[in-house]
Design goal:
Blueprint: H1 2-31, H2 34-42, E1 50-51, E2 54-55, E3 60-65, H3 72-78, H4 83-96, E4 107-112, E5 121-127, E6 130-135, E7 141-146, E8 149-159, H5 164-170, H6 175-184, E9 198-208, E10 211-224, E11 229-236, E12 241-244, E13 264-267, E14 270-274, E15 281-284, E16 287-290, E17 296-298, E18 303-311, E19 315-321, E20 326-333, E21 335-336, E22 345-346, E23 351-354, E24 365-372, E25 375-377, H7 395-410
Antiparallel strand pairs: 1-2, 3-4, 4-5, 5-6, 6-7, 8-9, 9-10, 10-11, 11-12, 13-16, 14-15, 16-24, 17-23, 18-19, 18-22, 19-20, 20-24, 21-23, 24-25
The structure holds zinc ion (ZN).
Amino acid sequence: MYKVKKYLSDLVLIFSFLFIGSICFYLYTNGKSAEVRDTAVTVTEVPETFKYGFNEAGHFFEDYPIKRNAFMGDILMDRGIDFDRILELEKKAEKVFSLRKIMAGKSITFIKEDECEAPKCFVYEPNPMSFIRFDLSNEIAVTKVDRDVDVCMQSASGIVTSSLWTSMKKEGLDARLIDKMEDALAQVYFDQSQPGDQYKLIFEMIYVDGKPIRSGKIYSAAYKSDEDINYGFFYANDKYSGYYDFEGTPNKKTFLNAPVKYSYISSGYNPNRFHPILKRRKAHLGTDYAARRGAPIMAVADGVITKRSYTEGNGNYIKIKHDDVYQTQYLHMSKFARGIKPGVRVRQGQTIGYVGSTGLATGPHVCFRFWKNGKQINHRTENFPPLNPMEKSELPTFFKERDNLMQELDEIPFKERNMAYAGFSD
Ligand SMILES: [Zn+2]
């Protein structure tokens, strides 16, 4: 009897909870304003949208990040795709985009009609320009879909507040463009930029499906400081390719300022220096550039590799002969770049090795040495001969091209130097 009573009281308890619950639900749904229900009506008018060719309204899209050492076969089997179909998919994919090329760290997107069903397709994007569709329903198919790519000309201008880099970043320009600006205007020493310097440029912007993805080539650029104005015009044909100034002189330095980007001088050229490791006075006939370990070391000019060697003091080092007058040497490398050995021709800016601290070195840096007629010199105080100018016969064609680019550049005004820039802080 007691048991029945307990059972009944439990029932009462359950029902009362249900009753209170339904009242709450009623109050909640009716409590919401009439607007909510009104918007529910307009939802049906939203146009259909498609993702990877599938109607977004009728499909589930599940992003799946690929982990290291994961096997596509295992991932697919976990999702209910049987072994024979995986083999067939693997075979068909081989001709379009091998499953082995799907990289860890990236994602694939599974597409299902019903959340609980096996996926009817998955998609991988190797780059923003295209995607690969692996269809798993009925007939297995692998297709590469190229997206709509547009290249548009864009312009930008700005004023330097602390450095060109921070100013361009502030203008929303991507890091590649900042690097390219240094190529376009290689004659300008951007590390000596002054607050108030003005710049403008015309460049390509690559759009995929109407969205800007990244910047392309710079066509023209101008940089104005208190002293002068420098121009860079892109000019290319079968004989010439690169940036030239207003007169047609190549915007290139005979030698790069430093063999490593984003480095700083930790010890300058000093014929009478106290050596930190040897603890005695020893001439330092090089310039030390401190940089992060593994940073690429560049050839400062075109030339031929004459030495790739190791000594206790120098560690791993490379020597380059540029012409009959100049040679350069790069010390303490962690390793050499692939293919770099005596007899190999290198171009200015080419990676020849990586920053390290092999040999007699306290931390990761490049000891950079410069020879002129067999004698070590301080390259930072040397006046180098200018690069060969453009041939006279080429100039009329160049000037025509330059004038076109100049006209476009003139249409962009320099940003005004107003009082807001008087404080120059950022
Ligand atoms: Zn040194």
